[in-house]
Amino acid sequence: MLSPKHQLLMMLPALLILQFDYCIGLSQQSKATYNYFAYGSNMCSSTMINLRKLSPLASTAAILPAHTLRFNIAGIPLVEPSSASVEPSINKIMDVGAMIERDELVHGVLYKLNEKDFASVCSTEGVPFAYSLHRCRPIPYSGDGLRAGEKSLRNLDYLNIPSNEWGVAAFTLRAARQKWREGNDIPPSQSYLNVLIRGAKEFALDGSYLEKLQQIDAGRTFPGNGLAEELLRRAEERTR
Q: Global pTM?
């Protein structure tokens, strides 16, 4: 008769399969949906639809308080040097004025995805090796290219709504490794930045945030400005 330890070891593969199926939602019969906050190239709807072959159920501009935009996911040097990430603020005091002053706000796009598409996002983004899932509460807003996101945040603060009730529950992605989170940023390619800027314009994110993206210094690439825009262009051509 096998010992309890050996019985558990024999059951482990099946348990891992069940856990994997539960975590990323591969069940075709389930109608569960996931809120996913995108802040990098996935802000551009064409990246989601044409490049990643996904079908978002809904999408809107959103602002994520108490987080900072980072470029700490290393890529291919001189080609696509890095990708974006977000990191929670060290300061836990949810003071709106202070967050704006410290630039601890990340604007992006809040997508509603079915289970299959959410699993695809996790897979294509390299979860759990490059990124890890991160629970957050982005605040949706109707983009006007001016200050709609900041106003939405200030309104919640004015109404004295507790910060843990701001926005909607969602998942986003942050750097998977602690050393990446604590390390220095790697300047991204101009091509990659251009896709972020395209997404910010598409969803009319706050003007100050668009300006911030436009002012980020690009890293050195050779030849050209990187591959992100070209890959997206080819994906768009294939779907025409």
A: 0.86
Closest alpha carbon to 215 in 231, 202, 200, 233: 200
Q: Which residues contact 207 (CB under 8 A, 6 or more apart)?
A: 145, 146, 147
How far is it, in rounded angstroms, from Cα 225 to Cα 193? 10
* Residue 170 to residue 34: CA distance in whole angstroms: 7
Residue 224 has a pLDDT of 92
Between the CA of residue 216 and those of 22, 97, 193, 212, 236, what are the distances in Å?
Answer: 39, 23, 8, 7, 26
Q: How many CB atoms lie within 10 A of CB 208?
A: 15
Q: In this predicted structure, what is the pLDDT of residue 26?
A: 41
- Predicted local confidence at residue 30, as pLDDT: 54
131 near 180, Cβ under 8 Å? no
Which residues of the chain have a pLDDT value below 50?
Answer: 1-29
Other CB atoms within a 10 A radius of the CB of residue 134 amount to 17
Residue 190 phi, psi (nearest 5): -65, -30
- Identify the pLDDT of residue 223: 84
HEC string of the chain equals: CCCHHHHHHHHHHHHHHHHHHHHHCCCCCCCCEEEEEECCHHHCHHHHHHHCCCCCCEEEEEEEECEEEEEEEEEECECEEEEEEEEECCCCCCCHHHHHHCCCEEEEEEEEEEHHHHHHHHHHCCCCCCEEEEEECCEEECCCCCCHHHHHHHHHHHCCCCHHHCCCCEEEEEECCHHHHHCCCCCCCHHHHHHHHHHHHHCCCCHHHHHHHHCCCCCCECCCCCCHHHHHHHHHHHCC
